[in-house]
Amino acid sequence: MQLFEPSWRASVTREAGTTLKVGTPIILAQLLHMSMNFVDTVMAGHLSALDLAAVAVGSSLFLPFLVFSLGTLMAVNPIVAQLFGSRRFDKIGSSARQALWLSQILALPFFFIVRNLGFVMVWIDVSAEVIPIAEGYLKAISWGVFPAFAFGALRYFNEGMSVTRPSMYVALLGTLANIPLNYILMYGALGFPRLGAIGTGYASAVVYLIMFLTMLLFISTFKPYRRFGIFDRFRWPEKERLGELVNVGIPIGVSATMEVSMFAIVTLLMGSLGTVAVAGHQVAINFAAMVFMVPFGLSIAVTSRVGQAAGKGRLDQARFKGFVGVGLCVLFMAFTAIVILLFPELIASIYTSEEDVLSMAVHLLFFAAVFQISDGLQVGGFGALRGLKDTRFPMFVNIFAYMIVGLTLAWYLGIYREIGPAGLWTGLIVGLTIAAILHNVRFYRKTS
Q: Which helix (H) or strand (E) holds 403?
């Protein structure tokens, strides 16, 4: 008797292939987005240590607002996917329009908040010479929140329809535009004033605008979308559609912010353990964040696949598609765990040549390898739950797993019990593992 029937193996292979086809452009788009921040950091570093510090502080303060807002707008993915699966095409265009309205509703308060974060920098004791430049950076990039959030709304609409290549191409365009814009505004080329790190903020705002306009042009001219009547005439916000986006989206935004916050706070706690600890931690966490883009991209594809099956009323298909996607996430993360365990010195040497930092990074990369499986499980499971529009329960799971258990345990072991960096990373591992288990158990029960 064969363990797996040939027809079952063929179904898994076919679904895995479809998920990879949908997810690969998203993965590449995410990596391109990360590369923009990398380019900003490198170019600022070539100006001065002060400019580099200002960009680091400014971008760290800007990130939570970006993550929360884009996470909230991600609601349009499962909503559109379910509408498409149920063939309710008349409501798809309305959801896209309301996502754009929501993006600007979120952008307006955040525009003013981001421009007035100087008191936070004083409160966390940022160096006095860094604060004015970081404030200038934040005021510059604040102009980009309107197009950045609008782009996110259109991008997630596309991904809900399983149309993912445009996001990749637009991200590539943004990456290519970012470098010359940075140079012109940072160094004062072509008659522009030399703005230093502040120029990086303006360059990012312009890049966001370019990306939004390009995506808007695509959606406006893409023939298969014409039947949805997205932009056939002006419409004001619609309470019902906007309410659904908020109800599904806010928990996603909170969930994403909780995860990002756990890692950010652990990094701050690491700062109390010395320069070597922070540097080694930065190496390990940066590499982990880079490889995480693969399962994260796949999880967005999983949301679309599960959503379309749920829209058809086929929970059996939703479960199958969801767990195939989760399996792909875990499979990739198992591979990266093996790579990290086999070549930690090689990975660390890409970032640093200082022996003490190299040693710390190698030590912490072991912990990064340990949480790869949990990270793949949690992001895959959460992606599957988003496809069911089940986002409130995962939000409470993430608050509990990351902020209550993971962060508390990290502080207790790393700082209070003085275990150090290993204790802080143990908290990360436990938090991710709890989320991984609960997300997948929840998905199984919701589709049973």
A: none
Q: How many CB atoms lie within 10 A of CB 133?
A: 22
Write out pLDDT tens, residues 177-190: 999 998 999 888 88
Q: What is the pTM of this model?
A: 0.85
CA 297 to chain centre: 9
End-to-end CA distance of the chain: 27
With 60 as the cut, is the pLDDT of residue 264 above it? yes
Q: Which residue has the tokens 């997810």?
A: 23
Give the H or E element holding residue 433.
Answer: helix 421-446
The structure tokens listed for 204 are 């990012």
Six token digits for residue 292: 């995480």
Per-position DSSP letters for 54-97, written without gaps between them: HHHHHHHHHHHHHHHHHHHHTTHHHHHHHHHHTT-GGGHHHHHH
Torsion-angle region of residue 314: left (phi > 0), alpha (psi -120 to 50) or beta?
beta
21 within 8 A of 192, measured Cβ to Cβ: no
CB 163 within 8 A of CB 103: no
Q: What are the CA-CA distances from residue 47 to residues 41, 60, 145, 176, 417 (Å)?
A: 10, 19, 25, 20, 41
- Write the CB contacts of 240 (distance below 8 Å, at least 6 apart in sequence): none
Q: Is the pLDDT of residue 219 over 50?
A: yes
Structure-token pair, residue 342: 């086999």
Mean pLDDT of 83-112: 89
Q: Which two tokens mark 343?
A: 């070549």
- Tens of pLDDT along 304-336? 999 999 988 888 899 999 999 999 999 999 999
- Size (the chain), residues: 448
